[in-house]
UniProtKB/TrEMBL annotation:
One of its GO terms (cellular component) is membrane. This is EamA domain-containing protein. Keywords: Membrane, Transmembrane, Transmembrane helix. The keyword Transmembrane applies. It is found in: Endomembrane system. Residues 326-351 are annotated as: Disordered. Residues 4-121, 130-284 form the EamA domain.
């Protein structure tokens, strides 16, 4: 994605490209969203529309605008790695604001990811520092968007794909309004020359038969289809398995950037990628590995875990007794219903 955006960034205004990308991407997901709303009879209230509009503003106007600008100021491979760290920032945001539990493995993954980012940024020898900082800020805000989408989508009654579609459309509409404001003479003249990309922002300038395939690839495939498949896979196999996508990105983006854009891979970039991959692996597999180690240790030291095993046995007994109580209560409710119907002569006999 970053490579295609880097190529297109030389032919389009970055804000314009962001607007086109999410407008077409949202329209590509719209038929599936309409089908979902009709099938599940979802009615969105005024407060629900407000939440969708706010989510769209965060992802399109803020996060992805910063992201698009950062790609033009730094290496595409480095910015791709920055964005791939957004699940870790999502963990922090969920812990601080939603009081979600943060396990030891998540803390370890967080530390590894931050160390990897510092290695790649290399603060002692910064190159493209502003672009890197904007990319990092974009990744953090993307983590905020992920939490907002999950929480607001659940309150409204939307699945991930529908929430993404509507957020894209609202966000592109909000960005379009800001683009229109940039055409006001007083506003355009007040913008410094160093930030000329924010003045008189075009809407569809530069689209031609030569650039149309690239625009459609970025908008439909990279934005619409990619986001849609990501959320569909999340619903099918779960969040952790779907997040494996972010494991591939840090390793693949620098290689493709080297082959397509000729961006050199430095030693600290390679080392930082390895550290971030380890952090992602800990996030996805840490709990499973920990349980396997505990199981092996328990087999080798049964006496050391006798109390834990006894607690597990007690827990199983309690759960089974609760299940038996619920089953008995259900049987009694059914029996009472049948007796009531027989008294009303709705059933000829108990059989």
């Amino acid at each position: 994605m970053e490579i295609a955006l880097k190529i297109a960034g030389g032919q389009f205004n970055p804000i314009e490209l962001n607007f086109i990308r999410f407008l077409i991407g949202g329209l590509a997901l719209l038929p599936f969203t309409i089908l979902y709303l009709k099938k599940n009879n979802v009615k969105i209230s005024k407060s629900g529309w407000g939440r969708i509009a706010l989510t769209g503003f965060v992802i399109v106007v803020v996060s992805m605008t910063l992201y698009q600008i950062s790609i033009g100021m730094a290496k595409a491979s480095v910015i791709a790695i920055m964005l791939s760290a957004n699940p870790i920032f999502g963990l922090i945001i969920g812990f601080v604001f939603l009081k979600e539990k943060l396990s030891r493995t998540n803390v370890l993954a967080l530390v590894l990811t931050l160390v990897g980012l510092l290695i790649i940024i290399n603060p002692f020898h910064l190159s493209g520092a502003m672009g890197i900082m904007l990319g990092l800020l974009s990744s953090i805000i993307f983590g905020v968007y992920g939490v907002m989408s999950r929480v607001y989508g659940g309150k409204i009654g939307l699945n991930g794909l529908s929430m993404t579609c509507l957020a894209f459309l609202f966000g592109s509409g909000e960005l379009g309004i800001l683009m229109a404001i940039s055409h006001i003479p007083a506003v355009a003249s007040a913008i410094p020359s160093n930030f000329s990309q924010f003045s008189n922002i075009p809407y569809f300038q530069g689209i031609s038969l030569q650039t149309l395939p690239l625009i459609l690839y970025i908008s439909v495939l990279v934005t619409g289809v990619a986001f849609g498949l990501y959320f569909l896979s999340m619903e099918k196999v779960g969040i952790l398995q779907a997040s494996l996508i972010f494991l591939v990105k840090p390793a693949l983006a620098p290689v493709l950037s080297l082959l397509i854009l000729g961006e050199a891979m430095t030693a600290n970039t390679i080392f930082g990628i390895v550290v971030i991959l380890l952090g992602s692996l800990v996030t996805l597999m840490g709990e499973k590995i920990a349980y396997r180690v505990m199981a092996i240790f328990r087999r080798n030291n049964p006496e050391a875990h006798q109390e834990v095993d006894e607690l597990e046995i007690v827990k199983d007994k309690i759960e089974n007794s609760e299940l038996a109580k619920r089953r008995k209560a259900t049987e009694e409710a059914v029996r009472d219903t049948l007796e009531a119907k027989k008294e009303r002569q709705e059933l000829p006999s108990e059989d």
